[in-house]
Amino acid sequence: MQTPAGVTELLAIMCVVSLLIERILEFVVEHAFPAKGEFLGPGTASRRMATFALATVLGILVASQTSLGILAKLNPGVGRWFDLLFTGLLLAAGTQPIHSAVTLMETKKHKRQASPLAKK
Question: Which of 50, 70, 74, 112 has the most CB atoms at less than 10 Å from its CB?
Answer without folding.
Answer: 70
